[in-house]
């Protein structure tokens, strides 16, 4: 369902994206080519001055919530995966090639490229450099805690890449079905 916001802005969706019929996308939202938006995702830029941009090849999985506060933006880089049930709240910038795990919460952050947040992690008010891992259930709310994060391993990098490839394949397969 694509809806205008109170400022009369409509989502801008690439013809080469795939959006589930049960996803709700509201307001100043831009979705690029090869983006997959799964059932029951909510992407909402309805507060004044808010916007959301989702770059090429990213996937927004089931029950993900993306929302931007007034006068803020959420930027999701290319080939980034937002896994089932996570929440991304703006202001927030997530770089290219990232993975945000099941039930994770990301708010008021800048996340570098190729970072991975495992399941039920919470990250708020910090900047995470590229190539870092936030472990399962970890909470990071102070910049000084970021220094202790481990670097991404080859196994986790391959896992991230596989999730993106699978979801780009789903975009193509679902578009063929809609034919």
Descriptive overview:
With 179 residues, this protein is mostly beta strands. It has a single domain, classed as UDP N-Acetylglucosamine Acyltransferase, domain 1, CATH 2.160.10.10. Helices cover 14% and strands 37% of the residues. The chain has 1 helix and 21 strands. It has one helix spanning 154-178; strands at residues 2-3, 12-13, 18-19, 24-27, 29-31, 36-37, 42-45, 51-54, 59-60, 65-68, 73-76, 81-82, 87-94, 99-100, 105-111, 116-117, 122-124, 127-128, 132-134, 139-140, 150-151. Strands 1, 2, 4, 5, 7, 8, 10, 11, 13, 15, 17, 18 and 20 form a 13-stranded parallel β-sheet that branches. The two termini are 19 Å apart. The model has no long low-confidence stretch (mean pLDDT 97).
